[in-house]
Amino acid sequence: MLTSDLLRAGPGVRLADIDPRGTPGVTSRKDPKQWSRVEVSLIGAELASHQEMLYADAKAGSDPRRVLLVLQAMDCGGKDGTVKNVVGQFDPLGLRIVSFGAPTKEELAHPFLWRIKNALPPAGYVGVFNRSHYEDVLIVRVHDLVPRRVWARRYDTINRFEAELVGEGYTLVKVMLHISKEEQRKRLADRLSDPTKHWKYNPGDIDERGYWDDYQEAYQAVLDRCSTEAAPWYVVPADRKWYRNYAVAALLREAFEGLNLKYPKADFDLKNEVKRLEASM
Ligand code: ATP
Ligand code: MG
Asked: pLDDT of 140-183, one tens digit each?
């Protein structure tokens, strides 16, 4: 079965029923970490070749297609690790990675999608959003950073926006890395006990942790309202990093396979060019 079918957030999906330690589609292995490392690097080679075709095709003509990976997770959910281990296998030349933190003053003066639109990948590129416009219905909803009636309208706005993107040639791969509260505690404890990880520790994360249930509810609303036909959400169980890396790589591979990419045909006379090269020696 396709990973995308196993992990797609379909109608009636309950986040609370998805085991963050689960490994859908992967049967038990003797050494799952090693298996995943090998598998992810094999998939990585395929991803790089798809990416090259995407890039070449956009360069050669007017192919508007591009792929956008949207990553969302609770703090310590593994977004950065996913970028490093999975996204890191793409050619940086055709890659655009953007992280979204708390909006700046300038960003706040614009509609919430303004900074998102400015960060979209050009045709031929793979884009990655490390957090995204969904923060505007997650942290913003949990803390009522804008009035309820304002954030409540955003689900439909987001759906319209994403449908437009898909119409313009975007393939959206929206991934929620789903960790348990206990796993977050462990990862926070790890950061505290290792001086080389202190830079990753943010005291505010403990405050947000206090709103765990509210965040789960906000994520549930995202899955209910914004997992559309055009741009579905995928929930990746992420307590096990080896599974997370494998699943995101597999989802990207399936998205690329759906594009049926091919190298563009040469727009020059091949025989003639070979002759010209010979004659030039
Ligand atoms: P990470 O994404 O791994 O937490 P970080 O801690 O280095 O990375 P920050 O620059 O602190 O990143 O930004 C992340 C914080 O910004 C998160 O707490 C997130 O909820 C918040 N944030 C992102 N978008 C918005 C938004 N639209 N409104 C308010 N807060 C936001
Ligand atoms: Mg943070």
From this structure: 999 999 999 999 999 999 999 999 999 999 999 999 999 999 99
Q: Taking the CA of residue 2 as centre, how many other CA atoms within 13 Å lie in the half-sphere pointing to its CB? A: 11
Q: Which atom of ligand 1 is nearest to the CA of 139?
A: 20
Say yes or no: CB of residue 41 within 6 Å of ligand 1: no
Hey, what amino acid is at 185?
R
> Looking at ligand 1, which residue's alpha carbon is closest to its atom 25?
102
- 54 close to 66: Cβ distance less than 8 angstroms: yes
| 232-247 as b/e: b if 16+ CB within 10 A | bbbbbbbbbbbbbbbb
pLDDT tens sequence across 6-22: 999 999 999 999 999 99
223 close to 235: Cβ distance less than 8 angstroms: yes
Domain extent listing, the chain? 3-279
**% the chain with pLDDT above 90:** 96
Q: Is this model's pTM higher than 0.90 or not?
A: yes
- CATH superfamily of this structure's domain 3-279: P-loop containing nucleotide triphosphate hydrolases (3.40.50.300)
b/e for 255-276, b at 16 or more Cβ within 10 A?
bbeebebeeeeeeeeeeeeeee
Total residues belonging to the chain: 281
Q: Is the CB of 142 under 6 A from ligand 1?
A: no
Q: How far apart are CA 48 and CA 89, in angstroms?
A: 7
Amino acid identity of 186? K
CB 147 within 8 A of CB 154: no
8-state DSSP, 269: -
Q: What is the DSSP string of 121-172?
A: PPTT-EEEEES-GGGGGTHHHHTTSS-HHHHHHHHHHHHHHHHHHHHTTEEE
CA-nearest residue, atom 7 of ligand 1: 200
